[in-house]
UniProtKB/TrEMBL annotation:
PROSITE patterns: RT_POL. The lineage of its organism: Bacteria, Pseudomonadati, Bacteroidota, Bacteroidia, Bacteroidales. This is Reverse transcriptase (RNA-dependent DNA polymerase). GO terms for molecular function: RNA-directed DNA polymerase activity. Residues 118-453 form the Reverse transcriptase domain. InterPro entries: DNA/RNA_pol_sf (IPR043502), RT_dom (IPR000477). SUPFAM superfamilies: DNA/RNA polymerases. It comes from the Bacteria. Coiled coil: none annotated.
Amino acid sequence: MHSRSNSTGIIDDTAISKARLVFITIMVFCKVKIDPVFNYLDSGALEIGMQHLFTTLGLAPPIFLQNEMKPNKDWFKPKGYLHLDDKITFDQRNLIQRKVSNVSFVGNHAFLPLLYKTVTQRKYKKIKQPNGIVRRSHTEIKNGKVIPTKKVRPIMYASHLDAQIYAYYANKVLGEKYEKLLKQTHALSNCICAYRKIPSDDGTKKKNNISFAHDAFQEIKRRGECAAIALDIESFFSSLDHVVLKHQWCQLLGKSILPKDHYNIFKSITRFHYININDFKTTHNGFDEAHIAELRKKGIHSFLESPKELQELIRTKQILVHKNQFVRKKEAVNVLVGIPQGLAISAMLANIYMYAFDKMIYEELVLKRGVFYRRYSDDIVLVCETDERNEVLSFVMDAIRGKETQLTISEKKTEVSTFKKEFVGKEERLQVYREETGTPRYNVPFVYLGFEFYGYQTLIKSANLAKYYRRLKDSIRRASRRADRKKERDLSDEKILFKTKLFRQLTFKGRKTRMLKIKRSKRIKDMFGNWQYIVEESPRKYRGNVFRYVYNAANEMNAPEIKRQYRNHWSIMEKTVNAYNFVNTKLNQEKKTS
């Protein structure tokens, strides 16, 4: 195939048309030999194939392929977790898509209870001692009792079919309408960051929290002396008012009432039921693996064999079904509020809920007063003139409490920082002051989206750095316990550390993306109709570890100091590894040979 290209590498329209025609022809005649993902053009398969075709023919991909036609992530994402129904596989896509896109099916669908579990996050809070000294601790004293400051985060997740309904409506129905609404005002679209696919300025990739934090910090640098305000909406998902949510949902659809399919989804997430996953555990604090294995032999990947089994467990009270317990006093009456966090549709509904608030802030503060405004889920950042900070803060507080939102800002997490240009030695630099109880504190960073901004430098949040080192030491400790068990099982005198995976997950050696060969078990039926498992190798894209994030942040923010934060990780890892008696570590090998 011959085509012309200019000096910029852009191929003319004729070549593009020919390439498209050739590719479609290949798709038609060779469809059975193409990976299943190419069966669905809406997932970007055509563009991926054309990229490959141009590369194979030695042609430079045109700009529309490089930028605008990069495929978005697909809504269809089968999950592997156990739930109350059987899991969905990739080859069921056509069947599932027909179901979830059928408004009659969705309108009459009976949603299963959610599964509930908690995730505990260790936290170090700043605690003020009786003597006035502030220290960091993971406990605090309340009413004479020592209380842990750990954060318990409730997680709820839907059954497999329900999750696909939520995902389809979040991406293909509500998501597309919400994006069209935002694009009517381009500058407003830039203000809402979370749960959206926002292209970078050069159009080569999607923005992430590094980009969003960098935008805010660059705005502060551009203004010089200014004020930055960071706010957090208190108990965001569990406080959403159902009347407000329903109203905003109708507004988005341009309807006075919700259609039957939308109303059924609305009911499922506002009047939700859930089962504690611990109810499926035995007295030995584990799942009934024998029962699960028996179900797998029958080709069922679930906690239960059928809906009848669930009904029987509920009837005999072996399993308790709980109702939505998020309540708030409204005119002296407790009313239900909130939606579960973690569902595929929760994030989209949160953005829809906040639309009126976002629009008000944009019109009153951004347009009229030149305030910089960004909202990332429940995290809000505003940059304004120093003498306007109190007025801006007061306006946002009143707006968030208004009838169109009915939420509150967490006063504990509210941060107001002022930036001033000062001389440090002979060099002038931008310096940050944190305003606390009316007294500015020198060099206390402005924290946003996991980064600490000092005006003259940007760092990873210190709590995230501490979390990394905790994870590093915990991983080595677990590896030691596994090695001890293997040593005992094999009647060996040597305690061996499997270093490759550990280094890939925890050190700079694992920062690059690459393909890994992973062995997976696959369930198939034999000639007698019995289920059996076969092991096959399947390549998987390894997406890098924390160091990929660190290097990306350092490069995008032009902040080499971020890399320096992790400069001691190798020596700390060696020290931790050598504290255990592994025979194949450098220090212990030297001891053995000496």
